[in-house]
Each structure stands twice: as structure tokens, then as C-alpha cells.
Amino acid sequence: MKKKIYFIVFILIILAGLLGWGILQYPKSDGYRSGKLVRITKKGVVFKTYEGTLDLGSGDKLTWSFSVHDEAIGEQLSAQAGKNVKLKYQELFFKLFYETNNIVESWQVVESAED
Q1: Which residues pair with 39 in a beta bridge?
Q2: Burial class of residue 61, CB neighbours in 10 A (0-12, 13-18, 19+)
Q3: pTM summary value
Q4: Are the C-beta atoms of 49 and 68 separated by less than 8 Å?
Q5: Interval 34-88: pLDDT, tens
Q6: In the 8-state DSSP scheme, what is residue 81?
Q7: Greatest Cα-to-Cα distance within the chain, rounded to the nearest angstrom
Q8: 31: which strand partners?
Q9: 77-82, long-range: CB within 8 Å, 24+ apart, which pairs?
Q10: Is-contact 79 13, C-beta < 8 A?
Q11: What is the pLDDT of residue 98?
């Protein structure tokens, strides 16, 4: 009888862990944002990430914050500060160790007519 109870508890713990992982990793939306890359900084003690701000067109009133978990993408974006960029991102349901739940997956420089 005790073995059966332990087995059921073990299965429930596994299911709860899988559900928690799914909620933390499954995106609720994805898309693109473009604007001027205003700020990007490397933060964190244990979970290191890049946190940034994108100016969408009207200064402080319309900015968008994002996180970059990939070290290579973070380094590349750091070199693009002040330029117009297009970011492909996923929005997660919850943020756990990061400042935002908007996670950048890739990027590209947007050429403006003035360049």
C-alpha cells in the first residue's frame, strides 16, 4: 500500500514539474518589434542575461523592454546600440529570473532612408 502511495506522489510531482516547465517555457505570443536600440546591459549573478530597451518612436513615452538569454545575440546587439534594429521575440507567460518576459531570439539592422 505504501509503495502505491509513493508511486502516485512521485507521478504527481513529475506532472507538476512538467506543467511548471511548460508554463515557464511556452510562448503566449511571438512577433517583431523595430526601433532604435537605446540601452542594452548584461545583468545577473547566477542567471546572466542581457536586458535592453527599444525606442519605438516617441522617446520615453513609447519604449519596449526585452531580455536576451543567448550570449552570442547579446554580444552582437551590444555592438548595435544607437542603431535602428528589428527584433524577433517571444513573449512568455511568466518571467522568473529576468526583468521582462519578452525574449529576443534574433535581430537585424534596419537601414533607414537617411543612411
Answers
A1: 53
A2: exposed
A3: 0.74
A4: yes
A5: 999 999 999 888 888 899 999 888 666 788 899 998 899 999 999 988 889 999 9
A6: T
A7: 76
A8: 89
A9: 77/37, 77/40, 77/50, 77/52, 77/104, 77/107, 78/40, 78/42, 78/50, 80/37, 80/107, 80/109, 81/37, 81/38, 81/39, 81/40, 82/36, 82/37, 82/38
A10: no
A11: 73
Distance of CA 54 to the CA centre of its chain: 13
Task: Select from 108, 74, 47 the least CA-distant residue to 66.
Answer: 74
> Tens digit of pLDDT for each residue in 76-93?
999 988 889 999 999 888
Sequential DSSP letters for 13-69 = HHHHHHHHHHHHHSEEEEEEEEEEEEEEEEE-SSS-EEEEEEE-SSGGGSEEEEEE-
The owner of cell 543612411 is 115
The whole-angstrom separation of Cα 108 and Cα 92 is: 22
